[in-house]
Amino acid sequence: MPEGPSIVILKELVQSFKGKKVLEVDGNSKQDIQRIAGKKIIDFKSWGKHFLICFKNFSVRIHFMLFGSYRINEHKETKARLSLRFKEGEINFYTCSVQFIEEDVNEIYDWTADVMNDHWDRQKALNKLKICPDTLACDALLDQNIFAGVGNIIKNEVLFRIYVHPESNVGALPEKQLDLLVDQARIYSFDFFEWKKKYVLKKHWLAHTKKTCPRCHIPFTKKYAGKTKRRSFFCTNCQVLYRNN
DNA sequence: CCGGTTGTTCAGCG
DNA sequence: GCGCTGAACAACCG
């Protein structure tokens, strides 16, 4: 569920509920979810891994974390964290974080930082990378303030695509490699999006969870790299390590 | 059946 | 007040 493209797929799947009134609310969320009852959904938005349900004076933020899931017009055995029922159909969210946002979402979200958004701004991402030259590439890609929506799969696939070692310092990358990193964060996210919709995402993985480099056939290294200590799969032969000093 | 994880926040500590 | 670490959350897959 969790990476940005999956949230955009969810947004597509619920389009028919836009403009519809929520007739009944249920769920084990500790938030005051009953305030949603009787309200009309104005829009669905997303920012990175955040899924936003917008009402007239507030929004609901759903974050699926690692284990979250949803069902549309069907439900699981377990009780939903949040269940929205309509005249026709229902949306059920499980094991997710539910938060209310009182502010205008356009005031608190920077759409230009979301790799899936029409307003994505590559130059702003480059500027943010320039001011943290010692950050490792694997940590930079997971930084939601720079690449909102990028998760661990996208991270591993982008770094392999551009042949950059995850423990490279972003400030040591040649200009061309830095451009590639920023651009592939978006391009791979859209590939992920298309493949996931066709249920062929996994078979396109070149690095993530892989044992052998598809290019030179030596064993991949698996390491919990960087400050984020997330699984990194990489080829020490093909992926170049760029270090400061 | 156990081990591991497409993620984030926060408490506790030095 | 800072950065770092580990816990917590709690579902599903292999």
Describe the structure.
- The chain is an alpha+beta fold.
- It contains 6 helices and 10 strands; from the N terminus they run αββββββββαααααββ.
- The strands form 3 sheets. A 4-stranded antiparallel sheet has the order 1-6-7-5, with no helix packed on it.
- Strand 9 and strand 10 form a beta hairpin.
- The longest helix has 23 residues, at 175-197.
- It starts with a helix and ends in an 11-residue tail after the last strand.
- The mean pLDDT is 92.
- The structure holds a DNA duplex (14 and 14 nucleotides).
Approximately what portion of the residues adopt beta-strand conformation?
A: 15-25%
Number of domains: 2
Q: In CATH terms, what is the fold-level topology of the largest domain?
A: Helicase, Ruva Protein, domain 3
Roughly what is the average pLDDT, rounded to an integer?
Answer: 92
Report strand order across the widest sheet. 1-6-7-5
Principal-axis shape: elongated
Proportion of residues in helical segments: 25-40%
CATH architecture of the largest domain: Orthogonal Bundle
Largest sheet: 4 strands, antiparallel
Structural class: alpha+beta
- Total beta strand runs: 10
Query: What does the radius of gyration come to?
Result: 20 Å
Which residues sit in consecutive blocks of at least 5 with pLDDT less than 50?
none
CATH top level label of the largest domain: Mainly Alpha
Give the structure's gist in a few sentences:
This protein has 245 residues and is of the alpha+beta class. It has helices at residues 4-13, 105-108, 122-130, 137-142, 152-161, 175-197; strands at residues 24-26, 43-47, 50-54, 59-63, 69-72, 82-85, 90-94, 97-101, 221-225, 230-234. The strands form 3 sheets. It has a 4-stranded antiparallel sheet with strand order 1-6-7-5, with no helix packed on it. A 4-stranded antiparallel sheet has the order 2-3-4-8, with helices on one face.
